[in-house]
# Entry
Amino acid sequence: MRFPCRTRYLRQFLHFQQVLLFVFSHNGIEVPAHPLSGLNTDAQKARAIMFKAIPGGHPTSVIGVIDMTEQNGTVTIIGNLTGLTPGLHGFHAHEFGDLGNGCLAAGAHYNPFAAPHGGPNDPPLRRHVGDLGNILTPRKGPTTFVIQDFLITFTGPRGIVGRSFVVHEQRDDLGRGGDAGSLSTGNSGRRVACGVIGYVMEGIV
# Structure
């Protein structure tokens, strides 16, 4: 059985939780010390430290953070990334918590119900669980975004904790491209960043 999150990446994730503010300061990334402040403290919290993909290798350069809360059937995703090219980028939750081989080891979009590729506003059986649409990078400044999704969860059959977020080079066509690639990946191109999703430890945020 292949578990979604391999042990070395879980250890790596917990280490980066502890040195998070130092890493961001060192890389010039402006992220609020409490990115989830103002949200209900009873909500479950998770986080992915995002890395720039290295073709054929394991990533080492942090480009930002994605924070999540789950409450009342909704997952709120708050992202702050740097270093992406201007324009739209496909953004998905992928099968495995493995960032190797240029983020290819993260596997395919998380799709436990064998649905066609779609967009976040499509019905549950017309999209992958991991289909989260596109994020927009402006001409200047960081890539910031807030997404609310009603299909993904932290645990269970639709759970994404222990899996990975992946940012793609190009725009996701949300399954409307009229070809086989559109119905599997949205023709969003190569993987440019990825990060393992894990729970936020008490006292970290």
